[in-house]
Write a structure and sequence with these properties.
The complex is a heterodimer of chains A (about 300) and B (about 350).
Chain A (H helix, E strand, L loop, with lengths): L22 H10 L2 H23 L32 H37 L1 H15 L3 H12 L3 H28 L2 H8 L4 H37 L11 H8 L7 H29 L4
Helix pairs in contact in A: 1-10, 2-3, 2-10, 3-4, 3-6, 3-8, 4-6, 5-6, 6-8, 7-8, 8-9, 8-10, 9-10
Chain B lengths: L16 E13 L5 E14 L4 E5 L6 H8 L7 E6 L2 E2 L7 H7 E4 L13 H11 L4 H14 L4 H4 L9 H13 L5 E5 L7 H18 L2 E5 L3 H7 L2 E6 L2 E7 H6 L4 H8 L40 H5 L5 E4 L2 E3 L25
Parallel strand pairs in B: 3-8, 3-9, 6-7, 7-8
Antiparallel strand pairs in B: 1-2, 1-4, 4-5, 9-10, 10-12, 11-12
The chains are: A mainly alpha (about 300), B alpha/beta (about 350).
Keywords (chain A): Cell membrane, Membrane, Transmembrane, Transmembrane helix, Transport
InterPro entries (chain A): BP-dependent_transpt_permease, MetI-like, MetI-like_sf, OppC_N
Protein name (chain A): Peptide/nickel transport system permease protein
Chain lengths: ~300, ~350
Amino acid sequence: MNMSLTNIPSPAQMVPIETSPGYWTSVGRRLARDKVALLVGGIILALVLLALLGQYLTLGDPYGTSMFKRLRPIGTEGFPLGSDELGRDMLSRLMLGARLSLFMGITPVILAFFIGSAVGIFAGYAGGLANALIMRTVDIFYAFPSVLLAIALSGALGAGIDNALLSLTLVFVPQIARVAESVTTQVRSRDYIEAARASGASAFTIIRTQVLGNVLGPIFVFATGLISVCMILASGLSFLGLGVRPPEPEWGLMLNTLRTAIYTQPWVAALPGLMIFMTSISFNILADRLRAAMAIRS
Amino acid sequence: MNALVTPDLGGPAQPLLKVSSLVKHFPVKGPLGKKAVVRAVDNISFTVQKGETLGVVGESGCGKSTTARVLMQLITQDRGELIFDAAEVNSHQLPLRDFRRQVQMVFQDSYSSLNPRLTIEQSIAFGPRVHGLSPAVALARARELLAKVGLEPVRFAGRYPHELSGGQRQRVNIARALALEPRLVVLDEAVSALDKSVEAQVLNLLLDLKKSLDLTYVFISHDLHVVRYMSDRILVMYLGEVVEIGPAEALFTRAAHPYTRALLSSMPSMDPAQRTLASPLTGDPPSPIDPPSGCRFHTRCPHAEAACRISKPLLFPTGEHHEAACLMSIPSSGHSRSPRGDQSMRHTP
């Protein structure tokens, strides 16, 4: 009855098999054909480069103040994008601001992605009582509006970048955990999970080899969409004085300090807001396109 | 090298699987929050002999699939035990992990039972890898099995499930089930989703594999033609209970239980002159939450009498290796058609 294993060819003798492109390869190909996705991807790439290299590219001095050159309009000699309420070069500050703004927008989402996925996948796979306990706890956090929760946590922890990152992470963990739990619960009921269980694999092995590949994609798309929310929340925290502290350039904080100049120099005052808008909408569209590209039958 | 081989313990006469008094109830919330249970499998016992194919038939919802999942220990029974080749399953004699290696299942939905993110050779190699074969050996075995089930490894090993047809996917599922060199394969509606020509190919493949690999099958289906073609013995289930069990030919020619006879007469015939005119069974089976008293079939049985509502018939021999649970087959059961006899075989409710 036993299949003999003696006639198995050694790996060297094996004929190369025909392979199909994997799922992620086909998703990548679809994205590469999507002009809008390429455009917003390009914008995001440019912003990331700006964040990484901004300090070497700035022409003016992002920190140098001047009482005589305050609130210059866009196009002034030496101030291509005008100057702020303390006479600092707006262009340099916007470029340098990309670093903190993106950092504050992306880091909490990455942290929450790992924590929330772990919590949600565990709850979804375990099911039953463990699931109920974890998910009802998550729901308590979920009941608060995210802005309110971020401000409350940040306020309780005290101002500062670290605390802002921590509170934003805590805001996103429940949201990601919920998505992770729901996709895992769906996957869990598939027959291939039953088949894997029937082969005697441990829960850990099944999650690693059978579940992760099927749930990380949707969770990732959801998390990408959260980056824009996170940037806006982070800007809001800075705006309220709970995030980045002056004189560090950050778009939310700049928007805050320039709001008094909205009547004298509306265009200059609107620039940081424009950057926030452009970045968050780019991430939003990218998430949307990614979702579409991943919706292929696989 | 043969790390997965398991010896035949009890000899050829020892049943491969002995199921006794198996019970599986599912709790459900009834109306008004009342707690109720679905009696999916209610006290069934049977044996599977080495090398045979035991067909399991019954209407939708009669507990066929629940039985399969309990046999696979994907869900645990509330009561009853499984004896696999003289060893109790999930005991120190036969730990679950060892049992799983010897019993595998082919699912109905060929698509849902393959991981869409894995190539089919990865899916097949998964089980052997779990049981400690090296990746290279496991993949080699996967390709060997693909060839065995009639899929050219060079063309198919690296493909993903969505690139295959239903029949090809079901062949992959069969290969996956065989990858652990099981002794018993549970086929739960394994060909029901395939179209007729492909179904015939897969059935013949299953018969060939059974012969060449010395397998034992539990073949679950609602299609009586297919069950007759495949099975040595047939077990008929109704509302979570076994109503009749016997050799395939005897059951088809001399069905003892009115439910079996009704199922047989509802089989679509190939001969237009033999058209089934009146539906032999009307209505849906009663709810397994609150099954009828006495004989569970009495609500739909043409021969039901007062005794059927009171006495619960147990399986009683009606021929060689042939048993049915019907008062009409049990002597002195109180049913007017019951065979006369003085030994009291009457069963109390």
